[in-house]
Amino acid sequence: MSIPATQYGFVYTKASGLTLNKNIPVQQPGIGQLLLKIDAVGLCHSDLHVIYEGLDCGDNYVMGHEIAGTVADVGPEVDDWSVGDRVAAVGPNGCGNCSFCRGDAENVCKRAFGDWFGLGNDGGYQQYLIVQRPRNLVKIPDNVPSGIAAASTDAVLTPYHAIKMAKLTPASKVLIVGAGGLGANAVQIAKTFGAHVTVLDKKDKARAEALKFGADAALESLPAHTEAGSFDVCFDFVSVQATFDICQKYCQPRGIIVPVGLGAPKLTIDVADLDLREIKILGSFWGTTTDLEEVFELVSKGIVKPNVRSAKLEELPVYLEKLKKNEYEGRMVFHP
Ligand code: FEH
Ligand code: ZN
Ligand code: ZN
Fold first, then answer.
1. Which intervals hold domain Enoyl reductase (ER) (predicted)?
2. Which of 291, 332, 65 is nearest to 162 (CA)?
3. 3-state helix, strand, coil in the chain (%, to 5)
4. What is the DSSP secondary structure assignment for residue 249, as one 8-state letter?
5. Is 68 helix (H, G, I), strand (E, B) or coil?
6. Nearest ligand 1 atom to alpha carbon 158
7. Whole-prediction pTM value?
């Protein structure tokens, strides 16, 4: 595989936002590192939160946190990967040594904040990436195309981790608010746990897709006669006050609300109701290496089918604008 000396990529700085750099050196991997040729990288709302809404993950790095690639070169002391392996990056990029990383919770590794792939540390909006910690890579199944793999590293991994944290059972009555990219994948995942799934979404197309993915009901809003406290677990993929209030009203006593979306920086909680009915609010962030391995199992078996569209990486600025205006469905992935 001939590796160029320089490449192009999209670099984020607090001063200039996201800009194209056509002369980024392609480094050689050092001890314990590997060089990844980027095959596909997904575009996410979190990118918009960084570029336009002040989410501070750091300064001066190549963005792109939903990464699938092929190992192009390995440095000394890297023995768990070989040139030609197809791998996906586990975004939170845990340090590997702390109690969280050793406890299968590397997604909340405190040392990795600001070191996430494409969100503080260099990511996949370029042709080649030096991976400092190859432990944070997962093999992509042979039958999973790179675009689907890239999208799965967040649009499937994030809802999968949230659902796993909520410990669904076949007796679970689940409410999913927002059946866009992550919500649509959540429907498919929740059905693998045997749960009864009700979806709320304003868009006809999203409700139709949710029913196609196995939702038991897909509604624009809950009927007036719906009993307050009808659901064991409410996943809010929008997380604005109005959707959170719906979740709190219709969550069972001792039920769980998981505000997965980042629609509002803060939410108001009816604390008396929360206490009287012992409602749990569960934070959930991205996912772990184990989760991503399990996600690839589901995707490889065709049980979860993420909705993905592809474009050339050079077209990224065009699709950033489209995403801002919600002008497309599904996940955009880019190929350098
Ligand atoms: C979410 C919020 C902030 C940073 C990163 C994330 C991940 O789910 C990537 O989208
Ligand atoms: Zn993302
Ligand atoms: Zn750690």
1. 14-334
2. 291
3. 30, 30, 40
4. H
5. strand
6. 8
7. 0.96
Q: Is the pLDDT of residue 328 over 90?
A: no
Protein residue with least CA distance to atom 2, ligand 1: 46
Nearest ligand, CA of residue 159? 1
Q: Which domains does the chain have, with CATH numbers?
A: 6-139+306-335 (3.90.180.10), 157-281 (3.40.50.720)
Instruction: For the chain, give the longest Cα–Cα distance.
Output: 65
Asked whether residue 150 carries a pLDDT value surpassing 80, the answer given is: yes
Q: Note the helical H segments in the chain.
A: 45-53, 99-102, 146-151, 157-165, 181-192, 204-212, 241-250, 271-276, 289-300, 316-324
- The pairing of strands 231-236 and 251-259 is parallel
Give me the pLDDT at residue 157, please. 98
Residue keyed to tokens 């991994």: 157
Strand partners, 334: 41, 311
Q: Whose CA is nearest to atom 3 of ligand 1?
A: 46
Which ligand 1 atom minimizes the distance to the CA of 91? 9
Q: What angle do the packed helices 289-300 and 181-192 form, to 10 degrees?
A: 80
Only one residue has tokens 């001939």, namely 2
Cα distance between residue 100 and residue 332, in whole Å: 32
